[in-house]
TrEMBL record:
<dbReference type="Pfam" id="PF07690">
    <property type="entry name" value="MFS_1"/>
</dbReference>
<feature type="transmembrane region" description="Helical">
    <location>
        <begin position="398"/>
        <end position="419"/>
    </location>
</feature>
<feature type="transmembrane region" description="Helical">
    <location>
        <begin position="137"/>
        <end position="157"/>
    </location>
</feature>
<feature type="transmembrane region" description="Helical">
    <location>
        <begin position="84"/>
        <end position="100"/>
    </location>
</feature>
<dbReference type="InterPro" id="IPR036259">
    <property type="entry name" value="MFS_trans_sf"/>
</dbReference>
<feature type="transmembrane region" description="Helical">
    <location>
        <begin position="341"/>
        <end position="360"/>
    </location>
</feature>
<protein>
    <recommendedName>
        <fullName>Major facilitator superfamily (MFS) profile domain-containing protein</fullName>
    </recommendedName>
</protein>
<feature type="transmembrane region" description="Helical">
    <location>
        <begin position="308"/>
        <end position="329"/>
    </location>
</feature>
<feature type="transmembrane region" description="Helical">
    <location>
        <begin position="46"/>
        <end position="64"/>
    </location>
</feature>
<keyword id="KW-1133">Transmembrane helix</keyword>
<feature type="transmembrane region" description="Helical">
    <location>
        <begin position="202"/>
        <end position="224"/>
    </location>
</feature>
<keyword id="KW-0813">Transport</keyword>
<keyword id="KW-0472">Membrane</keyword>
<feature type="transmembrane region" description="Helical">
    <location>
        <begin position="169"/>
        <end position="190"/>
    </location>
</feature>
<keyword id="KW-0812">Transmembrane</keyword>
<feature type="transmembrane region" description="Helical">
    <location>
        <begin position="431"/>
        <end position="454"/>
    </location>
</feature>
<dbReference type="InterPro" id="IPR020846">
    <property type="entry name" value="MFS_dom"/>
</dbReference>
Amino acid sequence: MAGIFKEEKLDGENNHHEEPGVDSPTFQEHDPHYEKVLIRKIDRRLLPILGALYSIALVDRVNVSAARVAGMDEDLNLSIGDRWSIVLVVFFIPYFIFELPSNIVLRKVGSANWLSFIAFAWGTVMLGQGFVKSWDVLAACRVLLGLFESGFFPVFTRVVERFLTLDRLAIFYLVSVLIGGFSSILAFGLQQMEGTTGLRGWQWIFIIEGLITQVVAIGAWFVIIDFPDKATRKGFLSAEEGTFIAQRIQNDRGDAVPDSLTWAKFGQALLDWKLWAFALMFASSTMPAYAFAYFAPVIIHGMGYSGGIANLMSAPPVVFAVISAMIFARISDRIRMRAPAIFGQCCVVIMGLMMTAYSTNDYVRYVGIFFGTAGCQGNIPAVLAYQSNNIRLQSKRAVGSALQIGFGAVGGVLASTTFLAEEAPLYRTGLWVTAAMQLMTICLAGFTTTFFWIRNKQQAEGRLKKPIEGQEGLRYTL
C-alpha cells in the first residue's frame, strides 16, 4: 500500500485546512425554501443514477442464485461437494481487500471516472459469466466481480450530512433493493429464452443483465459529478450554491474539507473501538441479506415449486422489506435516534429466521422469509447511518467506511459457508448462526448507545476534557 498514504505527521483530531469559500463552520443564514430547493436539485441529479448503479450491483452479485435454479446447477455440476459455497464465497475476498484502496482511488480520479469504469468492468464480467463452461471459471469470474464492485458504495456517504443520512441512505438503498428484488421476475422472463441461439436460459440471465450494466455505466459518466467542489466548476451548482453546501456539511460535522489520509491517521482510526463495533453490526446485517438473496430461491424450490416459480416468489418478500424499512427509517429520523430502529429490526430478523427454520407449514416458512428479509434490509442503512452520525473527519470516514463495508463482505462469507449444502432446504445451522449475529448486534448497539449517552451527559455538564470527536458542540447520536 506504499504510495497510498501521504507521509505527514498527525496533528490531532482537529487537523483540517480551510477551503476557499468556507470561511468558518458557522452556518450562513438562508431561506429554508432555498435550502430545500437546492437539496432537491442535487437529489434529482445524483440519487437516480447512484440508485441505478447500486441496484445493478446488487442484482449482479446475487443473480447467480436465480441462474442456479434456472439450470446452471445441473450444467456446471454445482451440487458436488462445496462447489456452490466456493462460487459464493470467492466474491467477498477481493470485495473485502480492495474496499479501502478503491475508496482512496475514488478521491484521486473522481466519482464519474471511477464509478463508470468499475461498473462497465463488472458488467463485462457479468456478461462473460453467460459463456462459462465449468464451475471453476465461474468462480474466477466471481473474484473479478468482487474486485470491481468493492469501489462503489463509499461515494454516496461522502455527500450527505448527519441527520438526513438515514432518510437518504434508506431511500437510495431500499429502492435499489426493490429493483433488485424484481430482478427475480426479470430472471424468470429471461429463462423463457431457453434455447435461443443455442443458449440456456441461465446464460441469458447473465448476458442480458451484463449488457444492461454496461449501458448504465456509460450513461453514468455523463451524469455523476464530484460533490460539492467539482459541481461548481462544471456548472451544475453556482458558486453561491457550492459554498452553501460546503458550509452546510462543515457546520454539521466539521469535515467538508478533505483531510489527507496519512499512516498516522490510519493507525489512529483503527484504534477507535467504535469503528470495529459498527463493522461487526454491519456484518450481522449483511449476513442475512446475502443468505436470503442466495438461498431463498433454493428454500422455496425445496417447498416443491419449479425453479421459475421459485424466482418469482422471491420478489414479494423484498417489496415487504422496503415498506418495513422505510417506516423504521422515517421514525428513526424523526426521533433522531438510530439504536431503537436497529434493536427492533434485529428482533424482526430473528422472528423470521425461526419461522423459516422450524415451522412445518410451508406457508409459514415463506412468511418467515418476509420478516427475515425485512429486518436485515432495514438494518443495513440504519447501521451505516449510525456510524456516519458518530464519527468525523473524512480520513476517518474513509477508514471507517472501508472497515464497515469490508465487514459486510465478512457477512457474505458467513452466509456462503454456514448454509450447508447437505442441510438444504432447511439450512438450520445457517439460520441459527444468523440469529446469533442479530443478538450480537443488539448487545453492541446497547453498549455503544450507553457509552454515547454517558459522553453526551458529561459534555453537557462540562466534565469532558476534550470535545466529542474533536469538534466543539458535537453530540453523539443515540
